[in-house]
Amino acid sequence: MLLTPSPFVQGQQVRPKHYGQPKASAERVLRDIMRATRRHFSAEDKIRILLEGLCGDLERQIKAFVEHYNHQRYHEGLKNVMPADAYFGRVKAIIQQRERIKRKHIEYRRLQHRKIAARYQPN
Prior knowledge:
The chain has helices spanning 26-36, 43-71, 83-87, 91-119. The chain is built from four helices and no strands. The longest helix is centred in the middle third of the chain and has 29 residues, at 43-71. By secondary structure, the chain is mostly helical. The protein has two domains: 1-73, no CATH class; 74-123, no CATH class.
């Protein structure tokens, strides 16, 4: 649905003064939008414009949350893998890779400990 003014109202489109500034409160932005569009849009058009803006923003935030939750967040209930990995069946491979890395690191630490201990062995 396009954001077009009512065909019966003519005039220059006016942008709110404080829109886009980080310190502008939501109430102030809303008040400026209402003031700027008072004579250019009908009440129904104003409601439609506000609802479309709010719904679009809400949809974008929900999509961002779902993307983060499924593809970036490790889930403790799924053995610390991401839900997307569990869905696509990669849990076993990920856990095996973690075990290999863990064993390799433990061997490396043991070797380092033995080297340090050998330096301080009395002859």
